């Protein structure tokens, strides 16, 4: 594929990531209003968020297998249409049960974003461009999160909260149609090429027996819930703990996400630059992830920040660090595994991330209701460093996956 087509594909994946996180953030932006409207507690809200994470966890591997078996042209179009219908269904929600059901449904589709995107990037981008490409897609999550607060608040203010779910859902349907048309026009071989040796494709059992798989899974289990904590709880924290109005949240809460976008692009560019200068892959990945993990320690001082501007500044540094780290974490999948296994391995790491994403919201809801936000921020500070150490401890040198010999 020519460079022009590659970067156009990346543009589609960036747009997908943005739409995904506008959809995902809609509920968190509206959470203070919906909690009041439907008499929901923080524990109730934690259960709703956990339902979404459970949906993602349940579908991560099936969606990853779908990408490996049927290709990303069909797989991504199907997944985006599926979750867009779920997003639209939120407009008729009225209770913990209904919102939890729709979030679960939505999670089963949104899980395909990373497994599909990482597979496309691994297939079409050379190694010294992949981390920046992953950073672009990961940065789209921050752009979507940045756009969502003012956009959703404005839609809700002028058209009502139900329309705030319906309009983003429409964007997803439009994207799915465009993806099907563009991919067919630009890529002829989305199904597995005829010259691929099917016997050389690792089985799922072999992948599960690999230390590399479990290293990536543990890393994502620890790293993933931290950014989810900021996505789902930041608006509520600013309103309930810092006394901001929902309008003020819409006006200012996008700033940390802008920093996160910058961190994703900078992290991707930094790692690729180090690789082009001859640094070994493990060292480039390790340096990038350690830098990001150190910046994430800033979560320790968010609660103690004496003013809202300072708290937002520290949160922005943390978001920058997290996405700086994440670009190399996702790119490491392509470093260690063949393209024929990318969808499944990404799905397996997503299962681990989903499990962490279930446990952390439940824990957050409980500690906020019974104590304060301080314990949650403490965990958010330490988990990225623990995840990075787990990856390099279990998979030293990020050694590529090798199939066991068959005699």
Unreliable residue stretches? 188-197
CATH superfamily membership: MFS general substrate transporter like domains
- What Rg is obtained from the alpha carbons, in whole angstroms? 20 Å
**Gap between N and C termini:** 37 Å
**Average of per-residue pLDDT values:** 84
Give the overall silhouette. Answer: globular
Protein model, in words:
The protein has 407 residues and is an all-alpha fold. The protein has one domain: Up-down Bundle (Growth Hormone, Chain: A). 81% of the residues lie in helices and 0% in strands. It contains 15 helices and no strands. Helix 6 packs antiparallel against helix 11, helix 9 runs antiparallel to helix 13 and helix 12 packs antiparallel against helix 15. The chain starts with a helix and ends in a 13-residue tail after the last helix.
Write the layout of secondary structure elements.
Elements: H1 3-37, H2 42-70, H3 72-89, H4 96-110, H5 112-124, H6 127-159, H7 163-186, H8 204-208, H9 211-241, H10 246-252, H11 254-276, H12 281-296, H13 308-336, H14 342-370, H15 374-394
Features:
globular, mainly alpha, 15 helices, about 80% helix
Task: Quickly describe the structure.
It is built from 15 helices and no strands.
């Amino acid at each position: 594929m020519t460079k022009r087509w590659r970067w156009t594909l990346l543009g589609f994946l960036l747009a997908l990531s943005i739409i995904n996180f506008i959809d995902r953030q809609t509920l968190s932006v509206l959470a203070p209003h919906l909690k009041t409207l439907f008499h929901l507690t923080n524990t109730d809200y934690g259960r709703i968020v956990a339902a979404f994470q459970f949906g993602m966890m349940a579908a991560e591997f099936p969606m990853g297998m779908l990408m490996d078996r049927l290709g990303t042209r069909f797989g991504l179009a199907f997944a985006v249409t599926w979750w867009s219908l779920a997003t639209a269904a939120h407009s008729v929600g009225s209770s913990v049960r209904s919102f939890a059901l729709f979030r679960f449904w939505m999670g089963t589709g949104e899980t395909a974003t990373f497994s599909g995107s990482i597979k496309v990037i691994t297939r079409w981008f050379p190694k010294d461009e992949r981390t920046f490409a992953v950073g672009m897609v990961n940065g789209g999550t921050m752009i979507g999160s940045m756009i969502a607060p003012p956009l959703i608040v404005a839609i809700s203010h002028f058209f009502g909260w139900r329309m705030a779910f319906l309009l983003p859902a429409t964007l997803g349907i439009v994207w799915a149609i465009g993806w099907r048309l563009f991919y067919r026009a630009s890529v002829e071989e989305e199904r597995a090429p005829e010259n691929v040796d099917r016997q050389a494709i690792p089985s799922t059992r072999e992948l599960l027996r690999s230390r590399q798989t479990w290293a990536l899974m543990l890393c994502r289990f620890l790293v993933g819930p931290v950014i989810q904590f900021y996505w789902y709880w930041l608006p509520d924290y600013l309103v309930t703990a810092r006394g901001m109005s929902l309008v003020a949240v819409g006006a200012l809460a996008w700033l940390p996400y802008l920093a996160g976008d910058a961190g994703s692009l900078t992290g991707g560019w930094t790692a690729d630059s180090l690789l082009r200068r001859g640094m070994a892959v493990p060292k480039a990945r390790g340096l990038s992830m350690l830098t990001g993990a150190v910046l994430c320690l800033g979560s320790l001082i968010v609660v103690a920040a004496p003013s809202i501007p300072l708290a937002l500044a520290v949160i922005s540094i943390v978001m920058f660090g997290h996405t700086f780290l994440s670009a190399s974490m996702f790119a490491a999948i392509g470093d260690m595994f063949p393209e024929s296994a990318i969808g499944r391995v990404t799905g397996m790491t997503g299962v681990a991330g989903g499990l962490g994403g279930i446990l952390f919201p439940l824990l957050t809801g409980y500690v906020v209701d019974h104590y304060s936000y301080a314990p949650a921020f403490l965990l958010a500070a330490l988990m990225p460093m623990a995840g990075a150490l787990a990856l390099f401890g279990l998979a030293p040198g990020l050694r590529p996956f090798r199939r066991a010999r068959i005699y």
